Amino acid sequence: MRKRALVRRPGPRLADGLVTHIPRTPVDGELALRQWQGYVDALRAEGWETIEVPPADDCPDAVFVEDTVVVHGDLAVVSRPGADERRPETAGTERTLAALGYRIARIEAPGTLDGGDVLKHDGTVWVGLGGRTNEAGLAQLAALLAPLGAEVVGVPVTRVLHLKSGVTALPDGTVVGFEPLVDDPAGWPGFLAVPEEEGSHVVLLDGTTVLMSSSAPATRALLEGRGLRVVAVDVTEFEKLEGCVTCLSVRLRG
Length: 254
Ligand SMILES: CN(C)C(=N)NCCC[C@H](N)C(=O)O
Hints:
Shape: globular
CATH topology: L-arginine/glycine Amidinotransferase, Chain A
Largest sheet: 3 strands, mixed
Oligomer: single chain
Number of helices: 6
CATH superfamily: L-arginine/glycine Amidinotransferase, Chain A
Bound molecules: NG,NG-dimethyl-L-arginine
Strand order of the largest sheet: 2-1-15
CATH class: Alpha Beta
Strand content: 15-25%
């Protein structure tokens, strides 16, 4: 399987990125750039080819490229971000994916949808509702993905920014999250509570390896105890902007 991932370099206005659920703390732009490079290097070291979406330097949050698109099979559904100031970010992602040969569809007004609200495992696509993504966005995504055999399920998100700020899935489909920040842990069969908020976020690198934040050492030990190999990266400057490891890439498989 060809493993490629979209990434987008942080811009000069990164420190002005949106903050909704946590207090604002100063972001070190130079450290952020080094951490981003470390993240890209980690993907490459694990066999992922990285493709840079052209910078959108007027948009402080553009580095969080995950929010601009949902890719399923050969279809790229370009998002319509719930935050107005993030809407200009999608054009560069769309151009990049079109050039790679993806079919393009778009979430249209009044729909809003952020890629960070979309969690996929096997044929199921969970969509977080309550923050940046609305019912119209979910309905449009469901209609676009139905012909590809995906089942789209809405779930509430009120305590964190995006669905994937609260939960992600391990390679075997087990959903992990930091319980105080998950609206309905019981709604996820086999939910695994992790001891740190930053431990909620895993990026699947292959069937036994996950990428996660080095801010969550106890979760790392928990996952290693379950037989997973963990690659940890420093993403503190992005965490100050409610970002996490998932937000910094869009994996393209196949
Ligand atoms: C899963 N997550 C958290 C994401 N996909 N995106 C994070 C975006 C953060 C940005 N400051 C914002 O507020 O939009």
